[in-house]
Amino acid sequence: MGKNAVRERNALLALIAAMCVLPLLTRNVNTHHVIIMILLYASLGEAWNIITGLAGQTSFGHAAFFGIGAYGAAMAYFKFGVTPWIGMAVAAVASAVVAAIVSYPVFRLRGHYFAVATMAVGEIVFQLFVAWRWVEGATGISIPVAPEGLATFQFRSSKLPYAYIAIALFALAAFVFHFVSRSKFGFQLRAIRGSEEAAMAIGISPARAKLTAMVLSAALTSIVGSAYAQYVLYIDPFMVFSMAISMKIVLLTVLGGLGSVWGPVLGAAILIPLSEYTRIAFGGTGRGVDLIIFGALIVLVACFEPQGIIGLARRLAQPNANRKGGADGDVDTKSDAARTSA
Amino acid sequence: MKFGSLAANENVSFAVFPGQIVGLIGPNGAGKTTCFNCVTGFLQPTSGHVRFAGADITRHAPYDTAKLGLVRTFQIVHTFRDMTVFENVLTAAFLHARGARDAADIAQDALKSTGLTWCGDKLAGGLTIADKKRLEIARALAAKPRMIMLDETMAGLNKTEIREAMELCLSLKAAGMTLVVVEHIMEALMPISDRVVVLDSGRKIMEGTPDEVAHDPRVIKAYLGDSYNVAG
């Protein structure tokens, strides 16, 4: 356990170091934008991976927490004139509370109820914000211009500060996932994904563990949402609560590798450029082209490599290990047959 | 325990003393698994009481029961397939471990006492059924129980594997463990049990030493049939 954990931690640190250099290699604003979006979505994927990749509870409603985070940051300055960082913190707590309220009843049920419930919650929160006067409803919020700086979370002269904030967020999300997945709590979540009965038999309360995972995941998602709002400086419910965001989080993590810290980065590095460049190429009429291509990739992954790209990479990296595994299987079957005939 | 108007267990009462192996037998549908589930908290009994180590654990959640030291295995193995064998056991070891290192030690001990050390790094999903059943027991052991309840651990195993499983039960007993073993395979259960409880149609029809049980006419009629011979 220890050796693998250290190796993963070092690889993560190396990746984050490389990320810090990456934005300096180009002065193209558009490339910076793509990098920022990749990092934000990779962070969302890491957060989602806690509840779905580890605990096996598929959430199709993470846009709800993303949106709450976005509104939290926007409202902080728009309504109260305080720094968006406070909004970020308040929204993270609010998202955690919403996640707990939603999860508590559904986690007592089994199977797909949770997936359906999260989808419904995503829609409900979206409709609430469309109708809610105090947050400007469907009109959305244009965050008032403030002096540039970390305190106001606004930068105009360059996208570089946003890129570094995005890297910091990714580091946060990735390390939270890394530590959770290798902790006692992470093993409990994986046990629950494997079998709730077996988990209970060894003293794990599935309802409590899943609730904790959901709260953590929602809070992280919300924090990324806040950063996104400060990056685009204009939000409305259709942008930040859309089902498309929930779906993108799901798709990119599944494509990259569910339950792996590398999955969301890989998935985001493929989906987000695809998304951004098809948008540039096709304009408004191209809406959804990225998801069509991505859908096709997901079908391929589901058919050939359920572990995602990371699973494929592992298989390519250790072809011998697998062949050996297969041979062992043969031996087992043979010895079984031998014993039975004897 | 009743399901609607169907009484799956009625007036079933028995005691298990520390350090013993108690066998729970009965023909198909006798209510063995129901009884098992009521004791371990996986079913909420409609009446009656379960007491364990001085505490009333009736209708306790399964995970609370496990924390108190009453741990079960499953008839159909519930292996965490995408974890290694070691990680399967480690997950259980966390229950009473002080820190990660302690948990790893407990897990290694559990693998050792079940003879699974050789495959600790293997993916659990790839084990044979006999080893998966062994892993179930290793995982239960790692949760540091005072008593283990084994649900048909030997079903589906061949003769060699059954012999090995019997030896494992006896070695656990020798190490001071208390065991309740639900089993279909009489030949496996009789030699290792200190006492045997016989269920039939949801009722306890007999309790005694394996010898007494095997010679009891009610038991023979209900379950064993005339061909069973203790001496052989």
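The longest strand of chain B covers residues 195-200.
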